[in-house]
Amino acid sequence: MSLERVFILQQPMRDDPSLLDVALGDGRFLIALTGIALVLSGGFAILQSVSGQLLPQDSHAIGMDSAALMRVANPRLLGFMFHDRVAYGGTLVSIGTGYLWLAAFPMQTRAAWAWWALVFRAASDFSRF
Known about the structure:
This protein is mainly alpha-helical.
């Protein structure tokens, strides 16, 4: 095979990558986006609990709002429900912060352990849900 034929078969390098190429790149953007979504979701869960209101699906499931629940049940039950929601929100914030840190620092330097940490963490998190 001639040298000229080899050069013809090769695809030229593109100098102008598409938005999709830039966004997907090495995957760090998507990992950071996942981290941001987790932090925002956890923050919402915490703020919702601080407000003292039940989520609509909670109210629908038990058939009453938080004031009615306090009247008919142990008043500490509502506190436990909010504590549980804050703990869940805090967990989401911490996982999201970990994803953001991994994407921003170790993955930027292409540390192999960071990708393995992400794989094991994600597998562990999603297997529990």
